[in-house]
Design brief:
- With 246 residues, this protein is an alpha/beta fold.
- The chain has 8 helices and 10 strands.
- The protein has a 7-stranded parallel beta barrel. Strands 7-8 form a two-stranded antiparallel sheet.
- Helix 5 packs across helix 6.
- The relative contact order is 0.17.
Length: 246
């Protein structure tokens, strides 16, 4: 038994339509706010659903690219990227105010998330957006990333994130979605993957190496074909090991 508490987060409002099935088993959600997916209606609906289940709400901004679902790097000036990301977050904050909800965190999506992990300019843009929000909002970041260092240096509260349903390279970047082994779909494999990160603070990479990692929140992608079963199974098995999700 390893008594502890973790957060499980899922991206929502991305057109998959399984939010009501997933949300009873998670503790925080990342709401797409118009960049790669989502609109006023989906943001409002997910906000209401999250409030009903007492799930923490986060903004999930991305490159403004619905055609490629925000998973392709877009060449943008820092000013243009700031305006886009800030606008997406502001749109969700406006809806949260109308629905009497609270913004808990921000987690960039897809290519924006991956680039901010290694690129100082992009990471700085995200941090500058965080600094404009007059709320006690946290930033979900990968361990040992560029954005972690920049955010910490500017006193932005961070939460380390790891991916329960994605495989890792030796440098702690995610295996490209172009690779067959990018995602984890098997319930046993997923549990072993996340349990090792929780209990040992280590992750087994795609090459078989074991690398140190830290995380307080773990993501399962809502567009994983087996997402609902993965999360249901994971909740039971974590609870059996004394690990609570909240």
């Amino acid at each position: 038994m390893i008594p502890c508490v973790i957060d499980i987060n899922v991206d929502m409002g991305e057109g998959i339509g399984n939010e009501s099935e997933l949300i009873p088993f998670i503790s925080s959600c990342n709401i797409a706010c118009g960049g790669h997916a989502g609109d006023v209606d989906t943001m409002r609906n997910i906000t209401r659903l999250a409030k009903k289940h007492r799930v923490k709400i986060g903004a999930h901004p991305s490159f403004p690219d619905k055609v490629n679902f925000g998973r392709i790097h877009m060449e943008m000036s820092c000013a243009a990227l700031f305006k886009s990301v800030k606008g997406q977050v502001d749109d969700l904050v406006f809806i949260l105010k109308e629905e009497h909800g609270a913004l808990h965190h921000i987690k960039p999506h897809g290519a924006l998330y991956n680039l901010a992990a290694v690129d100082e300019k992009v990471a700085n843009v995200i941090v500058e957006v965080m600094k404009t929000i007059m709320l006690p909002v946290k930033l979900y970041v990968p361990y040992k990333s560029v954005i972690e260092k920049i955010a910490t240096a500017q006193n932005i509260p961070i939460v380390y994130e790891a991916f329960a349903d994605r495989n890792y390279n030796d440098d702690l970047t995610l295996v490209s979605r172009k690779e067959i082994a990018a995602s984890i779909h098997n319930e046993d494999h997923l549990f072993e993957h996340i349990f090792h990160m929780i209990s040992k603070q280590k992750v087994k990479t795609i090459t078989g190496k074991t690398i140190g990692i830290k995380a307080q929140t773990f993501c399962i992608h809502g567009d994983n074909p087996n997402a609902v079963n993965l999360i249901k199974n994971l909740e039971v098995r974590l609870k059996n090991h004394g690990i609570q999700i909240r």
